[in-house]
Specification:
Pfam families: Pkinase (PF00069). Belongs to the protein kinase superfamily. This is Protein kinase domain-containing protein. One of its GO terms (molecular function) is protein serine/threonine kinase activity. The chain has 478 residues and is of the alpha+beta class. The chain folds into three domains: 91 residues, PH-domain like; 167 residues, Phosphorylase Kinase, domain 1 (2-Layer Sandwich), CATH 3.30.200.20; 172 residues, Transferase(Phosphotransferase) domain 1 (Transferase(Phosphotransferase), domain 1, Orthogonal Bundle), CATH 1.10.510. 25% of the residues lie in helices and 22% in strands. The protein is built from twelve helices and 18 strands. The chain has a five-stranded antiparallel sheet. A four-stranded antiparallel sheet has the order 1-2-3-4, covered by helices on one side. A four-stranded mixed sheet has the order 7-6-5-8, with helices on one face. It is elongated, with a radius of gyration of 24 Å. About 22% of the residues have low confidence.
């Protein structure tokens, strides 16, 4: 069988170096000792029970270590080791994340995770996002297998409009998911969209969801906060696959205001839901893109959940609005059917008249601008130096390696709710946070499921957004 990758390497021995060849064939790593006669080979399965480590010196990878019964180090040229690292990324578990990355600042928060901006130690101009998950909470809430189900979904769903998972690390107290860094949130540009922009963006969104559904996955938490861009409107990425599943829908989960009614009204003893739940969430997003307003509104969480569950649609803004295409309104109504069996599917959406009408040549613009606007671009900055608390700043990677921490800033919470059984009133009451945090008016998903105790810097900008990688580079150079 032809190998996917092959490189020469060596191991340090007391009686001299021994030469080896490492090959990747399908889902196996084959390590052959070519110094001895006859040659001997060892096979390692590529899965999440295999741990891999790296040695770095002078910004170059020197060796790769496979942790089995012992820690075996194999030395080779840096270029081949980087290729091997890329091939294994997301398919095995790496160790020692602070060997390869510096965490710069906190840029987001999930249900039981924090997201950090990373800088590569191999190339200081490369930046990544890292989802850091507390191991105790992971094991208590979803289990190690549940986490790696999410990881497997992201590995399987390789698509130009889906966030790419690059590497998975496991530390003593946390798991780390390293991904591409996308610097602009969809929520920042929602009110700036014209019809051409909406057409371009929504088609990418539906195409990505259709790809997921064709591969048997449902996202279950589609919302503006889980949509990112990288520079232009042709570079949309869906993020956060924490609720993604290939199983039948038998659990209540999602974000109030975007979750499908069949999930909120679910009786797990007698019925279940399917991928049509994502179509409803897409419809709510589409409505907000067209109107700049939330579909389900209310004076409190309970009212919003009740309107969401009953699918009390407010289409008043669409009536007589000449700016909204008739085809868009027709598509919207088909996506927001309360009965999922009557709801349009993702493939049919792409064949709908809204997309099949003759498309004009769209420039890669938003309102005649070359790039997506950044409301805070004039004040973006890295906060420095760190104000240590009690003489010690706790790194998300290692409390013993202070040099790996450079900066950190406040984040906007990204509320996601995983709902147990009970009435809408009970669900709302059980998920109301004991300690409320001040949130911007744009954060309308109403829930924050937990408060985090991480040490973060105070900033005067409540609407702070992390800078682009290019801006970070300029700042460090200065």
């Amino acid at each position: 069988m032809e190998s996917d990758f092959k490189m020469e390497c060596f191991r340090h021995k007391l009686l001299g170096n021994k030469q080896y060849i490492i090959q990747i064939i399908s889902n196996k790593i084959i390590i052959t000792n070519i110094s001895d006669e006859p040659n001997t080979s060892n096979e390692l399965d590529i899965n999440y029970n295999l741990f891999v480590d790296f040695k770095v010196k002078r910004k170059q990878i020197q060796a790769i270590g496979f942790i089995t019964d012992k820690h075996h180090w194999y030395y080779a040229d840096s270029e081949n080791l980087i290729k091997l690292k890329q091939i294994l990324g997301g398919r095995v578990v790496f160790k020692g994340i602070n060997t390869l990355y510096n965490p710069l600042q906190q840029i987001g928060q999930g249900t039981f995770s924090n997201v950090y901006l990373l800088q590569s130690k191999l190339n200081s101009l490369e930046y990544f996002a890292c989802k850091c998950l507390d191991k105790v909470q992971v094991h208590e809430k979803i289990g190690r297998q549940g986490l790696f189900d999410e990881i497997q979904a992201m590995v399987a769903l390789k698509h130009q409009n889906i966030a790419e998972l690059l590497e998975v690390y496991e530390g003593d107290v946390q798991y780390y998911m390293v991904m591409q860094y996308y610097d602009l949130e969809f929520t920042d540009i929602l009110k700036e969209l014209n019809n051409e922009d909406i057409h371009i963006i929504f088609k990418q969104l539906v195409t990505a969801v259709n790809f997921m559904h064709e591969n048997g996955y449902m996202h279950r938490d589609l919302k503006p906060e889980n949509i990112m861009f990288s520079d232009c409107i042709y570079q949309l990425r869906i993020i956060d696959f924490g609720l993604t599943t290939r199983d039948s829908g038998k659990s209540k989960c999602g974000t109030p205001g975007y979750v499908a009614p069949e999930i909120l009204n679910l009786d797990t003893k007698i019925n279940e839901y399917n991928e049509k739940c994502d179509i409803f969430s897409l419809g709510v997003i589409f409505y907000k893109m067209l109107t700049s307003n939330d579909l389900f509104q209310g004076s409190n969480h309970e009212e919003i959940l009740e309107n969401n569950a009953k699918c009390n649609n407010n289409f008043d803004m669409l009536k007589g609005n000449a700016k909204i295409p008739k085809q868009a309104i027709d598509l919207l109504k088909k996506m927001l059917q309360i009965d999922p069996t009557l709801r349009i599917d993702s493939k049919s959406i792409l064949q709908h008249q809204y997309f099949t009408v003759e498309e004009q040549n769209h420039n890669n613009t938003i309102n005649s601008s070359n790039h997506l606007s950044r409301k805070h671009s004039s004040v973006l900055k890295i906060l420095s130096p760190i104000q240590k608390q009690n003489g010690m700043f706790i790194s998300p990677f290692s409390i013993h390696d202070e040099e790996c921490i450079e900066n950190e800033a406040l984040m906007q919470p990204i509320p996601t709710v995983i709902m147990k059984g009970g009435s809408l009133k009970e669900i709302a009451k059980s998920k109301t946070p004991e300690k409320s945090r001040k949130q911007s008016k744009d954060i309308t998903k109403k829930y924050q499921t937990s408060d985090f105790d991480d040490v973060v810097l105070e900033t005067q900008q409540s609407n702070y957004r992390p800078p682009k990688p290019s801006q970070l580079s300029e700042m460090y150079n200065k």
